[in-house]
Amino acid sequence: MQSVTTQKFDDVLVVLVDNPPVNALSWHVRQGLNDSFEQGLSDDTVKAIVLRCAGSTFIAGADITEFGKPPQGPDFNAVLNIIEASEKPVVAAIHGTALGGGLETALVCHYRIAVPSARLGVPEVKLGLLPGAGGTQRLPRVVGIEAAATMCALGEPLSATKAASIGLVDRLAGEDSLADDAIAYARELIAIGPRPTRERPLGGDVGIIEQLKAANAKKWKGFDAPYANLACVEAATRLPFEEGMKFERAEFVKLMAGSQSAAQRHMFFAERQAAKIDGLAKDIALRDIKKVGVIGAGTMGGGISMNFLSKGIPVTIVEMVQENLDRGVGVIRKNYENSAAKGRFSPEQVEAMMALLTPSLTLDDLADCDLVIEAVYESMDVKKEVFGKLDIICKSGAILASNTSYLDIDEIAASTARPQDVVGMHFFSPANVMKLLEVVRGDKTAPDVLATAMAIGKKIGKVAVVAGVCHGFIGNRMLSTRQQPAMQLLLEGATPAQIDKVHTDFGMPMGPFQMSDLAGLDIGWHRDPSRVETIRDALCAAGRFGQKNGKGFYDYDEKRVGTPSAEALAIIEDFRATSNLPKREISNQEIVERTLYPMVNEGYYILEEGKAQRASDIDVVWIYGYGWPIYRGGPMFWGELEGAGKIVEALERHGVKVAESLKAKA
Ligand code: 3HC
To answer: Which residues form the 3-hydroxyacyl-CoA dehydrogenase C-terminal domain (predicted)?
Structure first.
């Protein structure tokens, strides 16, 4: 089947792109556009041309799978130049999404008509790129510098109605009559003639560029692409069009050749791949989830509940004590009200979501729930007791999920007579914000239960990843291989601030000790101040429990900003003295080798044991669950870039047992 076809409607030629699933600009589409426009331009009976797409969307961009491969087919810019130079008016008819190269194609068309539900944008920045086919030069000429800079640097698409208000869309079509409306519009334009975008005057205030940089400094730390996007828009304001195009090309080539874009493109596909479950039929029938139960109204249970309420799914939340229930429900309301104050919800929406929440003091109220998620205290005995009760109370076919972050799902499932209905659904704190959901597949978890847990994860806006049963699953299992050596490095002479800085300079939101302070140093502490076996014991014995009481590895002010603590350092020194370990200079490179390389190694073990389906799933876990910088593509992708040989050599030098599959790559 041809991916681009033409059809004449009297004096209007309709060029139709049909390249499922998203009409990406694969080489054969570029070829087809080239040929179709040449045909239309040389046919004297054609007076205007409409470019439209079949299927669910207008062109959603360049074909990302072609990036990094030898070029094939006509050059994209050359094709766009033919369209823009047309002496006959060209109309882009937009439905679905016009993204990246798709919007750039629409921008060389002289006019744009769109259905109100369409969305238009240049999301290249999210792939570590910039619109590399004139987007940074043409967009400002159509919508002005402010809107263009914002669209390029943030990559957020606009609704067609918003696009119409800034001149990006010239006319709105009827939702169901785009094909006819576009032809009628093109016919009107025959008398008006073409309007090449490159010739349009450029207006607006270039000051927006510095404003965007200032407003996003924190978010963009470490990223190259937002700045390159802005540099190109800035270039458009001072260079003639052709010069601006050369500037854009040079910046695009630089980004495309760099590791950041490679990492971000890897993550684009990794995220989509994660949804695919090995060995499961694609069309497996899912269980219907109309009502959810959550056990535990603490931080975790409350956050989990919000995910469902926000999507209009009723939740029954159960606590043991009225006071805790009230507090939990109060926190949910407060969170929604805070979001409403920031304009994310209207007060009516807050009330509508709260009306979907049923607080309860008894598990009996979960009888009619289709999915119950347990988020109680992390103790196997407690969990088994809860699941035993759920087994009696819940209706047949209900999915019974545990939010445990470490414990054995199979053992929990064994406390019920329906282990096939039991699955892990491990959310990450804060559960209403973090995008990761680890779906833990037990030995006996039924395929449709697994598939339903993954699907409901997607529905509530999470990126769900399948994990196998092992201590800490994918994420926390790897976390411990970082935390333990970090602690050992303290004993050998590094400071918490030095180690944390290596991690934050790497791009992590916080280092190992900042994370420990946030979680609380007294988690798992034996509560006997006279027993000091670890540095954590020593800190707890001195009443340093972390952020919660303003002192841990760091001292915290009332805004919870931490500064290095002389007292904590003295405690660490004292502890080192009792261990008789000599103090030495620790280099930042050694910190990388001993805290980051072991994570890569553990990732290989996880794959060897089949606890993750694929390496890219591990990357998804670390990016969406722990804030690993997306421009480094996750630990497994980063490990490939570092080089297996280098990692294996360093791990062996530090006495770490290396996974065979990692060794095999070296
Ligand atoms: N190239 C190649 N494949 C693409 C693609 C693209 N631009 N966009 C989507 N796909 C693939 C996906 O990988 C997925 O494949 P799979 O079914 O095998 O997993 C399939 O199309 C469907 O995609 P989604 O699952 O994402 O479908 P949705 O309906 O949820 O979303 C979408 C559709 C909003 C278009 C979303 O796919 C998307 O955001 N795509 C990327 C858009 C983009 O970034 N465009 C810019 C590309 S770079 C560029 O244009 C450079 C230029 O300036 C020169």
So the answer is: 472-556
